[in-house]
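Data card: per-record layout.
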Amino acid sequence: MNNKIVTLVSCVLISLLTLNSCKDKHKKTLEKKTEKIIYASDVIPFFDQWKLILGDGSNAGIPINFEHKDYFFTKNDGENNWVVFKTPNGGNTHGTSNNTRTELAQTKKWYPKTANDKLTATLKVMNVSSTGDARVAASYSVVVGQIHSADGHENEPLKIFYKKFPGHTKGSVFWHYEINTAGDDNSGRWDFSSGVWGHDFSVIGETEKKYPEEPKDGIALGEEFSYKIEVKNGIMKLEFSSKNHQTKTFTKNLIESEYATKEAIPEQTQKLFFPIGQDGVERKEAYTGEGCFFKLGAYNQTNGKSPEVNRNWCSGAETHNGDLKKQYADGNYAEVWFKTGSILVSENAVSNEGYFSKNDKVK
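The structure for this 363-residue chain is written out next.
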């Protein structure tokens, strides 16, 4: 009799424990299902000013309460929430570019001569391509901020780069000014690169796999840095800052060219761009009269095109024929995390819809 009572009590206890366990599992499942998604627009409250181009070449529009598991989402590093921009070496591209991007493009454009516009950001680069040709200046790099022209040749008076060679601990931050080429033929356009921390664009490898010396004052993957871009009355001012690094500032006139004659073209450009036929001169008025706009995100500069096509921009990197999963699996992508950002848009800014209508085509 006592054995029967013990058995009965045991069965009841097991049943209660099983029931409670099921309730706990059900509760956890419900909690997981109802867990609030943290969107990028929750982390940085400025997304009403942008449209988002994804790494598959599509325009996602204004990305408020939006995420994409492959290209655009948020992560927490244990201390802060970050907005993640991720894009492969190869795949569909936006507009006329050969490179993929997951990048914000400003919905308004402003004119340098009357501008009073500003963009700031704090970020860390988490990955650049694991493959490429070290002799190609664009290999292993990503652009994390831009000023782009919406008119004329649609050139870029500013591109902010991060670049790190394989095997190096530290990479380089540098910025480019691209000339606004005189005349109708834009094939002679070129960039001039200015180093911030580490090397500039012109420092390349001796052979495909022989890399230059690692920069002593460079920035590591996962190391925070900030930039501030201000354009006012035709003058662009840049400020770069990072803990344990010297703050650097630069200025550039966007409405009066210093490259309007062949004699004025810098030696860096002559060595890097002249051999591939890019030796144009700039309009005397530079970007005067053209609507410009900010971009921010991950514009991957490493692609799979053959270096024989262009020894500065075609990296010959691994793309697995555009297979996204394979590229992400072996490090052939760019990934940039942003912690903060702000944008000031002047009263003189106007709609930039014309740029999107021209370029919203997948290539």
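Known properties of this structure: The mean pLDDT is 92. The longest strand covers residues 116-127.

See the next section for split statistics.
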